[in-house]
């Protein structure tokens, strides 16, 4: 009993920590991304699931999200509810400009096998692993010990009036997006240019997949896969308007000891509008 | 020769001009026009015609009219018709549905736009006075765009080309499919 609970928790931790390594996808999906008027409400889904955007697996805890107003003020999420397969919440937009809704986390993680060959994962679900704790919690001579610096970022943007970017500076932590094309200014038939940074450096080789909504109605998933160039840049263009899910993954060997690798993921939901 | 540009006329439709202060002023300007010797009245106008639709719940369309350059960049906002009567400016909620205009202009504008914003118009032909509206526009090739979006209905855009300054009489039109019946641009050379 105890063992199965542990495995369950481990699977969940993996799901939240690295949607890439599992087949699951995570997203924050706004009902709409560009609104008009003096103020407006936007309602959101946040979920971990198998298909885009079809919640069928796990309700991502909305309390882990932060919302920043166009002038950089923290904004409360409202009407939050955790449902079976998704969490829902609302944000009231009262300032003109772009709101950012996100979660960002960094952790040291370790995987190993014990003497009975059983797999272990550290730190536990929702926890952040530090170097000090690592030396206490993880057997240093374990088989298949794999230690990584991980960083995961989950974002979406919504705009009242004209898009702005004043609240969106790079933090230098994990894999980040510099939106050369504002995510709320993406239109069919026009190039959409993004640039990725890993810990503040241009993230050459970042692997990106983009999937349009309505995946369940297509025979082939129809995702676009691209790799960032030397500058960390990608250029996308879409003929079809809709809500798009973008996931980027970056990995290299430039980690600080005791980690050997650093691995980061970034997820963005953005809307491509028709003209 | 100086021209009198009755700006307050620009939003008043021919067929549905209610008895408002603005229209009272309009009726005043007709006699006023004869008082000055240098007044020229030009027939520069855009006619916008919406179809009468046989639908259960009809809402007059939101409409935007603007002048854009050949690359699509908005140069002059001409008219925006929306629900201006709702409390707390709630009619602005649907301005984004004029999605071309919203991107080109509306999202950066502070509503209402003086001399541009106006109430929605009922089906039929509405005339927009363009006298003097393009006086400050550099010479070049442009388009006059009209976009209509209707609640529980569709959206449509039409455009007609316009070279400025106007050197010979312009009479161009475009036919719509569902939300717009037609638009017709009439311009005469500047005097």
What this model shows, in words?
The complex is a heterodimer of chains A (275) and B (191). Chain A is mainly β and 275 residues long. Chain A folds into two domains: 2-106 and 148-272, Sandwich (Immunoglobulin-like); 107-147, no CATH class. Chain A has two helices and 18 strands. Chain A has helices at 2-17, 131-137, and strands at residues 25-30, 34-35, 40-49, 58-59, 66-68, 78-82, 87-93, 97-113, 119-122, 143-160, 175-179, 192-198, 201-202, 207-212, 224-227, 233-236, 242-252, 261-272. In chain A, strands 2, 5, 8, 9, 10, 14, 15, 17 and 18 form a nine-stranded mixed beta sheet that branches. In chain A, strands 1, 3, 4, 6 and 7 form a five-stranded antiparallel beta sheet that branches. In chain A, strands 11, 12, 13 and 16 form a four-stranded antiparallel beta sheet that branches. In chain A, a hairpin with an 8-residue loop joins strand 3 (40-49) and strand 4. The termini of chain A are far apart. Mean pLDDT of chain B is 84; it is low at 1-19 and 22-40. In chain B, strand 3 (74-82), helix 2 and strand 4 (117-119) form a beta-alpha-beta unit. The longest helix of chain B has 13 residues, at 21-33. Chain B has one domain (7-187). Chain B has two helices and nine strands, in the order αβββαββββββ. Chain B has helices at 21-33, 99-104; strands at residues 45-50, 62-69, 74-82, 117-119, 124-129, 140-149, 155-164, 170-175, 182-187. With 191 residues, chain B is mainly beta. The interface between A and B is medium-sized, with 15 and 15 residues.
């Amino acid at each position: 009993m105890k063992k199965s609970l542990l495995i369950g928790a481990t699977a969940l931790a993996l799901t939240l920590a690295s949607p890439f390594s599992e087949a699951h996808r995570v997203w924050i999906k706004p009902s709409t991304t560009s609104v008009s008027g003096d103020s407006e409400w936007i309602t959101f889904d946040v979920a971990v699931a198998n298909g885009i955007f079809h919640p069928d697996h796990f309700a991502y805890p909305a309390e882990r999200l932060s919302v920043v107003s166009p002038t950089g003020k923290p904004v409360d999420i409202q009407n939050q509810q955790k449902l079976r397969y998704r969490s829902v919440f609302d944000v009231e937009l009262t300032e003109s400009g772009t709101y950012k809704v996100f979660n960002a986390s960094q952790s040291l993680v370790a995987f190993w096998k014990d003497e009975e060959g059983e797999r272990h994962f550290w730190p536990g679900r929702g926890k952040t692993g530090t170097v000090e704790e690592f030396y206490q919690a993880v057997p240093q001579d374990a088989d298949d010990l794999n230690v990584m610096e991980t960083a995961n970022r989950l974002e979406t943007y919504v705009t009242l009036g004209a898009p702005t970017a004043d609240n969106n500076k790079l933090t230098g932590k994990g894999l980040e997006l510099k939106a050369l094309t504002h995510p709320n200014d993406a239109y069919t038939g026009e190039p959409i240019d993004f640039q990725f940074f890993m810990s503040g450096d241009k993230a050459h080789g970042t692997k990106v997949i983009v999937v349009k909504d309505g995946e369940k109605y297509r025979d082939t998933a129809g995702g676009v896969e691209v790799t960032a160039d030397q500058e960390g840049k990608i250029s996308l263009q879409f003929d079809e308007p809709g809500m798009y899910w973008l996931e980027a993954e970056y990995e290299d060997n430039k980690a600080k000891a005791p980690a050997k690798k650093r691995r980061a993921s970034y997820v963005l939901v953005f809307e491509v509008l028709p003209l | 020769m100086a021209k009198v540009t009755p700006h307050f006329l620009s939003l008043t439709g021919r067929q549905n001009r209610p008895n408002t202060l603005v229209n009272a002023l309009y009726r005043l300007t007709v006699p006023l026009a004869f008082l000055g010797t240098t007044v020229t009245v030009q027939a520069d106008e855009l006619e916008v015609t919406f179809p009468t639709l046989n639908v259960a719940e009809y809402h007059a369309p939101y409409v935007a009219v603007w002048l854009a350059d050949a690359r699509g960049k908005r140069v002059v906002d001409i008219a925006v018709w929306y629900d201006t009567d709702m409390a707390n400016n709630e009619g602005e909620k649907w301005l984004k549905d004029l999605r071309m205009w919203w991107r080109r202009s509306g999202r950066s504008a502070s509503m209402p736009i003086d001399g541009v914003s106006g109430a929605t118009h009922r089906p039929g032909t509405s005339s927009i006075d363009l006298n003097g509206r393009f006086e400050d526009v550099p010479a070049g090739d442009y388009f006059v765009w009209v976009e209509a979006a209707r609640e529980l209905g569709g959206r449509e855009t039409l455009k007609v080309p316009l070279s400025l300054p106007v050197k010979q009489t312009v009479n161009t039109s475009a036919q719509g499919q569902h939300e717009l019946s037609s638009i017709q641009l009439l311009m005469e050379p500047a005097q």
